[in-house]
Design brief:
Blueprint: E1 22-31, E2 34-44, E3 49-53, H1 60-67, E4 75-80, E5 83-84, H2 89-95, E6 96-99, H3 111-121, H4 126-139, H5 155-167, E7 173-177, H6 185-200, E8 204-209, H7 212-218, E9 221-226, E10 229-234, H8 236-243, E11 247-252, H9 257-264, E12 268-271, E13 278-282, H10 289-298, E14 303-309, H11 313-321, E15 328-329, E16 332-333
Parallel strand pairs: 3-8, 3-9, 6-7, 7-8
Antiparallel strand pairs: 1-2, 1-4, 4-5, 9-10, 11-13, 11-14, 12-13, 15-16
Helix pairs in contact: 3-4, 4-5, 8-11
């Protein structure tokens, strides 16, 4: 579907130095005394889905806004689709699609009207506008709601319309900022399928997410960002393999937590867990669970809950940052955020 547009001859000298559609070098952004992004280096390969994983306030959206020319970097440089995001911002904008988490969509206009307006703004020939709008409405499942005011749309419908709007000019690079936040499970899965389909058609995708399962399911590579820095990067498979042993999680009475921790430490490295539980990288795997239970029993510790989980992106995140994502179970994503996790260090506000 995507047709790359030929670039003008006035590309910045460093803009054409790589075939990668997204490149950032030493990217920094300050807001007053707050350093929201602190030296991000990034290269997204052509035709891949790249995931930015991190909690709210980690710097994900700020990086996206710089790469899409909405914010100027305080320091560093970035090229998107071969053009510098500062000196050739207009060239970048013509080649990218952007669906932001807080995108403003006029609630009084219909889906059809918004798509037609977006097409005009991008200079699509009038003869192509209707067919392109119809095609996008079909692919995001909004044909039946095309002539309804957007103010009557559900959250999932609005996110799908926002995706359609970002695709009207057939961009080669697509930025999605937390595309499924607040969506119900069915809407989330439907949007995942559409992102995969776009990628299979040749679109390079960079998405930010705080959902572990989303990053694991969609991304070819993942960068974990925390306090404005990338702390870990790689394929989901490689990142999970780097954790090593599976995690044994147990819950015990608060009065027995210290004793239980001492027992677990004999079976492997203690791991960061959500508040109210204890974890250990169980070197012996499933075969060692019986030994752990016997040792806890000998120490007089009563186990209230126990589970053994293979390494997950949550384990990678915890190992890299010292805390776990809020609302993220060790086996993946949960829809409802739970209590704040225990942290080894504070998170930037």
């Amino acid at each position: 579907m995507n047709t790359k547009q030929p670039g003008p001859t006035d590309r910045s000298s460093d803009g054409g130095s790589s075939t990668a559609p997204i490149i950032a070098k030493g990217l920094v952004r300050h807001f007053g005394s707050v350093k929201a992004v602190d030296g991000v280096d990034l290269e997204v390969h052509e035709g891949e889905i790249f995931g930015f994983l991190g909690p709210n306030g980690a710097g994900k959206s700020t990086v996206i806004r710089m790469l899409t020319t909405l914010l100027k970097p305080t320091a560093g440089s970035a090229q998107v689709a071969g053009f510098d995001v500062v000196t050739h911002a207009n060239d970048v904008r013509r080649r990218i699609g952007v669906a932001l988490q807080d995108a403003a969509i006029d609630p009084l206009m219909t889906g059809n009207e918004l798509l037609h307006l977006q097409a005009v703004l991008y200079g699509l020939p009038v003869s192509q506008v209707r067919a392109r709008a119809d095609e996008l409405l079909e692919r995001v499942g909004l044909v039946g709601a095309a002539d309804r005011r957007v103010g009557t749309y559900s959250g999932g419908m609005r996110r799908r319309l926002d995706l359609a709007l970002s695709l009207i000019h057939q961009p080669t690079v697509l930025f999605l900022d937390e595309p499924t936040t607040g969506l119900d499970p069915m809407s989330r899965i439907a949007l995942w399928e559409e992102v995969r389909r776009l990628n299979q058609e040749g679109t390079t995708v960079l998405l930010t997410t705080q959902y572990l399962e989303e990053a694991d399911q969609l991304a070819d590579r993942v960068a974990i960002i925390d306090h404005g820095k990338i702390v870990k990067e790689g394929t989901p498979t490689a990142l999970k393999a780097s954790v090593g042993a599976p995690t044994l999680l147990i819950s015990v009475a608060a009065a027995q937590a210290l004793t239980a921790r001492d027992v677990l430490a004999k079976f492997g490295e203690l791991r960061t867990t959500s508040e109210g539980s204890l974890g250990v990288g169980l070197e012996g795997g499933a075969g060692a669970v019986t030994d752990v239970i016997r040792a806890l029993d000998d120490a007089g510790v009563k186990v209230q809950h126990l589970e053994l989980n293979e390494p997950s992106l949550d384990d990678v995140f915890a190992e890299s940052t010292g805390y776990r994502l809020e609302g993220a179970a060790s086996t993946g994503m949960t829809d409802a955020a739970g209590p704040a996790p225990a942290r080894k260090r504070g998170r930037r506000k």
